[in-house]
Amino acid sequence: MSVLALIPTATEWEWLTRRGNLTLTTNSFFFLLMMFLKNKPGGKVICDVKCSELVMEMIPSLGGKIEMIRTGHTYFIEEIMSGNAVLGAEFSGHVYFGDRYYGFDDGLYAACRVLEIMDESGLKASELMKGLPSRVSSPELKLECEDKEKFNVVELIKADVGSDKSYRDLNFTDGVRAKISKTGWF
After folding, report:
1. Helix, strand, coil: what percent of the chain each, to 5?
2. Which of 165, 156, 117, 164 is nearest to 175 (CA)?
3. Are residues 148 and 123 in the same domain?
4. Region at 166 (left for phi over 0; alpha for psi -120 to 50; beta for the rest)
5. What's the pLDDT tens digit per position in 21-33?
6. Residue 11 sits in the same domain as residue 99
7. pLDDT tier at 76, thresholds 50, 70, 90
8. How many angstroms separate the CA atoms of 128 and 116, rounded?
9. Does the structure show a pLDDT above 80 at 18?
């Protein structure tokens, strides 16, 4: 038996397996990726810039195309509703569906879709997770900054990171994202 945990608005969700293991949103998203890209090969999947590097690697390995977009409901719904993406996920746990009912961002619905995968495969959540790669990750870290200064701070960081050749795969879609090693980024 697994337990489903929803935040009060029921838009974000996590699984807790019978052995007490928390299934992070990234792993639950992998289940959905496998189903969606099997049914829609070559489909575009959208993620925010905070999604794990593992998600970025998994999507092409499953035959999908990835696009990083800005964090936020409005940006995801726009992409999904336009029919440009089959699935989307934010680091926060919001999942957006590009089939059946376009634009759904509902934790309970996402959990039901994972239950559908479990039912079709005949496997428990813990059994589905066995084959998934894992990495250590940190939560989102937010530093306090006065609202009137935040954009200036981001521009200074962009300039510093952009001029330092030790950073790779720079992405300025929504702030700053840069690789610092094969699997590490900020």
Report:
1. 35, 20, 45
2. 156
3. no
4. alpha
5. 666 666 678 878 8
6. yes
7. very high
8. 12
9. no
